[in-house]
Amino acid sequence: MRHPEFLSNVSSLYFETSRFGHLLCGWIAGHESEYMETLSDQEVMGSVTQLVRRFTGNPTITPKRILRSQWFHDPWTLGSYSYLAKGCSVQDVENLMEPLPTSRSQAQPVHVLFAGEATHPCYYSTVHGALLSGQREADRLISYYSSRDSSSPAKSKL
Ligand SMILES: Cc1cc2nc3c(=O)[nH]c(=O)nc-3n(C[C@H](O)[C@H](O)[C@H](O)COP(=O)(O)OP(=O)(O)OC[C@H]3O[C@@H](n4cnc5c(N)ncnc54)[C@H](O)[C@@H]3O)c2cc1C
């Protein structure tokens, strides 16, 4: 990927004026965002300046400074949130949410449950998807322990 080509995956630019005055916020995704993270602040600023000048038709606009995320290379995040890439389907999301051991295995009990935005088949990449997925897995545990307790004889709690 040549240097300014990563800008082809900038999906939106909008002004955030309510809190910060003259601030322009841009969104970038895919491999282009990973590539962007390898560039210096100076290189990103140069490319973004070209983009803004081209977009506005004003050749004198010059950002004072930039602040950009590097979540892909941050070992504590390894990215921002999921999306269905070309060739993926909801089946992939459903595979991600399947507890271990899987229902095809006869092994009991459930050992590992998966929640988080990437496991919600409709609302992946959102906060409400993350919340609903947590509730779904909590319900799964309740249902698992309720059925297990009702099938075993009652024990004294003393
Ligand atoms: C810039 C931005 C803007 C967004 N705007 C919106 C919006 O307007 N509306 C909306 O609905 N959603 C928005 N989202 C998406 C939303 O924030 C996420 O979908 C949601 O926070 C995902 O929640 P989660 O619990 O699935 O994952 P996360 O919030 O990512 O939580 C995962 C946690 O696991 C921790 N972790 C990772 N690896 C390990 C490990 N090995 N050991 C221990 N802990 C680990 C991480 O540090 C993190 O705390 C936005 C996201 C970004 C980045």
TrEMBL record:
GO biological process: spermidine catabolic process
Record-linked InterPro entries: Amino_oxidase, FAD/NAD-bd_sf, Flavin_monoamine_oxidase
The protein's name: Peroxisomal N(1)-acetyl-spermine/spermidine oxidase
Gene Ontology cellular component annotations, sorted alphabetically: cytoplasm
Taxonomy of the source species: Eukaryota, Metazoa, Chordata, Craniata, Vertebrata
Pfam families (UniProt xref): Amino_oxidase (PF01593)
Species of the source: Takifugu flavidus (sansaifugu)
Keyword Coiled coil: no
Cofactor: FAD
Residue span(s) of domain Amine oxidase: 22-142
Keywords: Cytoplasm, FAD, Flavoprotein, Oxidoreductase
Cross-referenced Gene3D superfamilies: 3.90.660.10, FAD/NAD(P)-binding domain
Recorded superkingdom: Eukaryota
Subcellular localization: Cytoplasm
